[in-house]
Each structure stands twice: as C-alpha cells, then as structure tokens.
Design a protein that fits this description.
Elements lengths: L1 H28 L1 E2 L15 E6 L5 E7 L6 E6 L3 E2 L5 H9 L2 E6 L13 H18 L7 E6 L1 H10 L6 E5 L12 H8 L7 H7 L4 E5 L8 H13 L4 E5 L7 H4 L1 H16 L3
Parallel strand pairs: 1-5, 4-6, 4-7, 7-8, 8-9, 9-10
Antiparallel strand pairs: 2-3, 3-6
Helix pairs in contact: 3-4, 6-7
C-alpha cells in the first residue's frame, strides 16, 4: 500500500498529461481556414453550392462540379490545411480527366459548421457519400473516392464502410500513430486509440486502389505509402503504386505529366476509356 501511495502522484500527473495531449491533439491534426479564397468559377467551371446536414446535426459545405459526359464521379477529401477553395488546381485536373467532382469542407473548415475532430470527419464523409448516392442518385459503381494526405485517411475510413468502384490515396499516412516517434506507444496510450489505420484497412479493401506517393515527401514519409501498398497487396487487392516526384503539397503538380497520365490510365482500366 505504501508503494501505491507513493506512486499515486505520478499516476495522477501522467493522467493529466495524457488528458492534455488528447485535448490539444485536434489543434495539431487540423489546420482549418474559414476564408474562401476563390470558387470554381475562377477556373471557368460551373458548380453547385451544396450544404449537407450530418447525422449529428451539423451543416457542412461543399461544391459539386459536373463534367459533361462524365466517365465517373470523384468524391474528394482534402488535406488538413485550408478548405475546399485551396484545391481548385486539383479540381481542374480531375475535371480535365472527365470526372464530375464533389468536394466538401470538413466541419470547422470553410463554410462548414462545428469544430474539427477525428470522429467528426467520418460523419462528414458519410454525409457526402449519402448526398451523392441518395440525393444525386449516382450509383456507387460510378464513384471513385479520392483523398490526399489526411484526406486519404478519411477516404479509406469511408471506403471501408461503403462500396465505391475505386479508391485513390495520395500522400497518405499508414496510421495516425505512425506519424509519431513511438507508434506502438502512441496508439494505446498517447492517442487513446488506433485512429485512421489506413494500411490495416487497405488490406481488407476489395476494389481497384491507386496509391500515390513521392520519395521527397517531407511531411508523410514515403515508407508509409509503401506500407499501405504492401498491406493492400497482402490482402490480394487490385492495387497500383505510382511514384511521383516533389514535395508533399506540390508533388502532383511537379509531376503533372506523369500524374495525369497515370490517373487517366487507372480510370480507363476501372471505368473504360473517356
């Protein structure tokens, strides 16, 4: 009992520190901006302003950008910074590939209500999926889910519960714990759970999957993209790995010719020629 009493202050301190870490975690994971920098109209693209209500009652904002004679519809989940207005370059690329695009700002981003949270992104993603499949009545077999960086983790989490025709993960981490110095310790203790286990989920995913990563990625290590790829292969999935060149945020533009051609090829194999 004496030993336990001596340890109690340390246990209490550890509990407080862990609670503090988990409280501030969203401030490190999410970096939202409320300012809309521009709309697709700035790129000459017609679009619909869309407001959805999530299952927990929040109103979130998105854009639906239709493509004439679209080969498929792409559901776009962005990274942890900014909002949908900072993804116009990617929207243009996907539009040029013959895809209609639906992109949403997570709660607390852009014109979306609420505060960002890991659990909240799952509800936001599901609301976006439901809008496409129920309101727009787009068949699941005509939808490809795309996520970049943190958005890849959101995309994979959604794709594990719904049935898209295909999935594209770009510059995505293998799990949130893997982004810490001590993954084995982080998941059960520091983070309080194995959040966004993208590699683990990829092993069970059963549809065409394209993984894109750059060896020069300074934010999410290249080995994590390879880890997702190897996990998907171990599950017997139809998976392709595209190695691009350049930084975490700009690699797709720095490798635009290779990037565009690879996306076009993946879409052609999945949905047919445009």
């Amino acid at each position: 009992m004496k030993v336990i009493r001596r340890l109690l202050p340390y246990i209490a301190l550890a509990t407080v520190l862990l609670g503090a870490v988990r409280f501030v975690l969203p401030f490190f994971v999410f970096m939202p901006s409320s300012q809309i920098a521009a709309t697709p109209a700035a790129a000459g693209l017609a679009f619909d302003d869309v407001f959805l209500t999530t299952s927990d009652g929040l109103r979130i904002h998105g854009w639906y950008i239709p493509a004439p004679n679209a080969r498929a519809t792409l559901l776009f989940f962005h990274g942890n910074g900014g909002n949908i207005s900072h993804r116009l370059g990617s929207i243009q690329i996907f539009h040029d590939l013959g895809l209609s695009v639906f992109i949403v700002s997570y709660r607390g981003y852009g014109q979306s209500e609420g505060r960002p949270s890991i659990a909240g992104t799952a509800l936001d993603a599901l609301a976006a999926w439901d809008w496409l499949t129920r309101y727009r009545q787009i068949p699941a077999g005509n939808i490809v889910i795309f996520g970049r960086s943190l958005g890849g983790a959101v995309a994979m989490e959604l794709a594990a519960t719904v049935t898209p025709r295909a999935l594209i993960l770009e510059s995505t981490f293998s799990s949130l714990a893997d982004m810490t110095p001590f993954p084995a310790f982080a998941a059960p203790f520091l983070l309080g759970g194995n959040f966004w286990p993208t590699a683990e989920s990829a092993a069970a995913f059963n549809a065409p999957l394209l993984i894109i990563h750059s060896p020069q990625d300074e934010v999410v290590p290249y080995r994590q993209g390879r880890r997702i790829y190897e996990a998907a292969r171990s599950g017997g999935n139809e998976v392709t790995f595209l190695e691009i060149q350049g930084s975490h945020n700009a690699g797709f533009m720095q490798s635009i010719e290779l990037y565009f051609a690879a996306l076009d090829g993946f879409l052609a194999r999945t949905f047919g020629e445009n």
